[in-house]
Known about the structure:
4-stranded antiparallel sheet; alpha/beta; about 10% strand; 4-stranded mixed sheet; 12 strands
Amino acid sequence: MDGASKFVRGDAVAGILILVVNIVGGLAIGIFEHKLSFSQAASNYVLLAIGDGLVAQVPALIISTAAGLVVSRVGSEQNIGSQIVSQLFGSPQALGITALVLAILGLIPGMPHVAFLSFAAIAGGAARWIAQDRREKVAAPPVAAPASAAEANEASWDDVAPLDALGLEVGFRLVPLVDRAQDAELLKRVKAIRKRFAQDVGFLPPPVHIRDNLELRPGAYRITLRGVPVGEGELQPGHFLAINPGRAIGTLAGAPTRDPAFGLPATWIDGAAREGAQQQGFTVVDCASVAATHFSHVLQAHAARLLGRQETQGLIDHLAKTSPKLVEDLVPKLLTLSTVQRVLQNLLEDGIPVRDLRTILETLAEYAPRTQEAGELTALVRVALGPAIVQHVFGAAPEIGVLVLEPDLERVLLQSSASAESALEPGLADGIARQAAEAASRREALGEPAALVVPDRLRPTLARLLKRAAPHLKVLGHAEIPDSKTLRVHAVIGARP
Length: 497
């Protein structure tokens, strides 16, 4: 076909030259030999020359059409003859357009009307017959499949759909908030939250699979982690949520509710009351912001569960680009990937970001020859990250206000942890949890961070004990406090009133 295409190009050039020669020669013969006027010679010989030129290009047209057919079906395995027949006669639209073009040509004055109109009638009739046959096939009842074919449709591994690591399900009224075609605001918020999470916490969370769920209420949404709901809420599209941060005055007309992220009292209001609510001290946000804030809070709260083997390997591979020797010496020579993952999860459960992965792995490489226990390695890593932990809790203030244990209580707890049966007596544990929660609430009411400083050996036990009673209370070990910080005791846990 490449040779044929070159022939067509050369033939076209030759045809133009021959046409010019024929026109000039025809005019000369008509004027000088047959003694015709210029207009008569042009009418006779120029028309003949142009007609001859057009007829001479018919082979080139056929070759070009053939080349186009061959090139356009390169990626198909079907026979070219069958392919042409199926495309030409398989759709009534193709024949209908052909009939319309032929009919228009047949109506042009000077054209062979009988030939063009006859072919137009044939093509139109064929298009009508194909269209009618297709309608009859669609209207015909489906033929029942044989029983053997139904029995052959056995279950396979393709039927086992993997669970989404992180999912967001919405009711049908919230679909516009997550519609990609409309560039929905909540979609952009989710992308920004994942990016911010990676920057703050230190690893990239899994992608979020968003879908509608007709089982939910129309305005409800659900956040799932590996198929298990970890957060739910309900929105009112077209309304705003006015949240009372604790200093708002007055009441608002609307549907009372609670902020799904932090449980603060709130009210759904319409757009007209938005400005008035802000003047009264309420925090007013739209539906997309409510869902996005809740989603961000859930991500932070379940960061440890989001860090799987794949995410841990991704962290290590990323660090290997800048510190290849450190990674090579640690994993898997000194520690397995699962142990490193467990240490990172322990840190995340305590609310400690893993951004400083180099310090974490260097500490693990230093102490891995002595112990392989993830809990002990976590305590050693916490000491190495002590300045960053205190910075994360208290900021850059040189003096930090903390809670401490009463000395006698501290001595009892140390003796209990040294014995084989280290479980605390239930009454004592309840008293510690209650007093710690009360002291933490007082610090939070003042807008100050709440942290309990205890001996390093007691830190894991008390952290587990106080996690439910005072979730915002940070439990720090003595060795984690930098020497540059000055401690100011604001409350003593276990002291008698």
